[in-house]
Amino acid sequence: MIVRPGSLTLAVAFVAAVSSCAALAGETYAFPAGFLWGTATAAHQVEGNNSNSDWWDWEQVPGHIKHNDHSGLADDHYHLFAADLALARDLGNNAYRFSVEWARLEPEEGRFDEREAAHYRAVLEACKANGLTPIVTLFHFTLPRWLAAKGGWLSPSTPALFARYAAFAAARFGDLADLWCTLNEPVVYLGAGYLKGVFPPGILDLRQALIVMENLARGHALAAKAIKEHDRKSLAKNGPPAVVTIAHHMRVFDPARSWHPIDIVATRVVDYIFNKAFLDAITRGRLYFNIPGFPRVDVVIPGGKHSLDILGINYYSRDLIKFNPRSPLLSDQLHPRDAQLTDLGWEIYPEGLYRLLVGTWKDYGLPILVTENGIADGSDSKRSEFLRQHLQAMARAMKDGVPVLGYLHWSLLDNFEWAEGFWPRFGLYSVDYATQQRRPTKAAEVYRQIIGAGKIDLGKSEDLGPEDEAE
Ligand code: BGC
């Protein structure tokens, strides 16, 4: 990788080098200079009025969203972004991950909207003005209405259309953004949209889900190529090199009954499907499934090999896997009986972040960016400890040699939580949706202090392990 002063690539190389020999003062870990501290958001969840998208249409159908919420004005971040980015700066952040909205930038097939491009340029300029390195996501679950009507990610033409949109984004924003996240959580997307039916298009069909997985991998590879191609042209003009990632949701899976061979096998299968298959496709260039009783997939993803410069990981929780003959592919996903849970019922398991960082670095050898980590906590009673303990787990992994480039908390603001609607509260700033007032949570101050100190005590590593008591 080329290293140029001032570029993110410099941070990549620097942090990778420093973190493997970072100074430890007793039980304290000092974060390397250049470490990225930030938050993450997604257009549809915060902007408001994303009315040209498939999600907008999906929300109009009663029963799709809890309490029949509509994303509506959401956080009105489309208009309030400048004030919101100042709030991010107040946290001491130096990075901000957000998504540009395909439905706005290409409202009709092949017609790109320069006014919307100018809007996102203004967001990028505001990032710079607040000292925030922008990390631009191209696809965060929403599609333009016209593309959904053509079959969305099920259609064989979508990967190329995605690459054309990526090329447009690179051309308009490439001078202001170095770090590109092509896809957010492809496996969550296809699981929710094509296996569980809780995201549009609301389908339950394994064969279609597998086609979507392949098309997402193809789309990522083509988009990465388009971004790099544009970048090579601008490098001639002395621009910084682009860094391409995805934001991959990874979970820790442990067998519910640690002694039970069938739970152990089921855990490996779920781990492969959820954590590894897609990553293999876009790092090794081959999408491969050979699970007895299920459709076999073995396809080469053109350009998939080495298509990631770094790996973005979204980490939230772990599941204990108990084999279920009625649902052998997914099995039952449980948590230990004494687990602490978030408002959404997800186990709070900071050690999982340590385990994932160490394991993923070993398996894939790519520098890692924590692109999301956060908690639904309406009472603001658990977020501070959640944050501290996850940062401690991350710091322990860094101390043990994993090159982690940065940490982005989900989320800057409370926002529209997809099928759950507005009730889950993930924000470091809570939002009063009636007045659009933002108020810092207690964790905002904790985050600010840790970033300001540039170091953290390492806490203790607690592997609660898979108890044989799960529910
Ligand atoms: C997604 C976000 C979502 C968050 C909390 C991730 O799966 O990228 O869009 O709001 O987790 O559920």
Provide a concise account of the structure shown.
The protein has helices at 8-19, 43-46, 54-59, 77-90, 102-105, 114-129, 145-149, 158-173, 186-194, 206-236, 261-283, 351-364, 383-399, 442-453, and strands at 24-25, 28-30, 36-40, 95-99, 133-139, 179-184, 243-255, 286-289, 297-300, 311-322, 332-334, 368-372, 404-410, 429-432, 437-440, 455-457.
Describe the model.
By secondary structure, the protein is of the alpha/beta class. It has a single domain, classed as TIM Barrel, CATH 3.20.20. The protein contains 14 helices and 16 strands. α9 runs antiparallel to α10. It starts with 7 loop residues before the first helix and ends in a 14-residue tail after the last strand. Bound molecules: beta-D-glucopyranose (BGC). Beta-D-glucopyranose binds next to loops.
